[in-house]
Amino acid sequence: MSNFQMQQPPAPKQWQPPVTFLEDMASLATALDTIITKENALAQDNKLADIADMASEKTQLAVDYDRHVRALKADPSRLHAAPEKVRVGLKTAISSLESKLADNERYLGAAKSISEGIVQAAARAASEAQAPTIGYVPKSTAKTRPMAAAATIALDKRV
Q1: pLDDT, tens digit (0-9, with 9 covering 90-100), for 97-113
Q2: What angle do CA 139, 142, 147 make, to 5 degrees?
């Protein structure tokens, strides 16, 4: 467990000069970018269980980053008051983060799809293995097909 996870979350920051605020936001975006890059590598290596170890840190960074995004939307003058170099640095950090997040969504979506497919295949196999035999011979190889879930029919006139 990292030291970051054991610390109390910082109190919401009050007003900061535009340069400090934007640099702080860029560092949050870069930290998130680093974690998402690690997640992507783990997803590619099919080590999805290891991703959960980073969840606490990622969540805290995401909350702080979101707080900065909301504050910037509420007061865009912070962006306009900052020097060009700081604005370009923030834009670069955000662009990189957004790119990694798009990759992350694809990787985790693919992993979810594969996991669901495996579970469905296992359920079908279990259902077919438990299907009763049909025919007159006790050891008949013909199996009944699994029935679809029965639809509920209301017989009450009030419905």
Answers
A1: 999 999 988 888 877 77
A2: 125
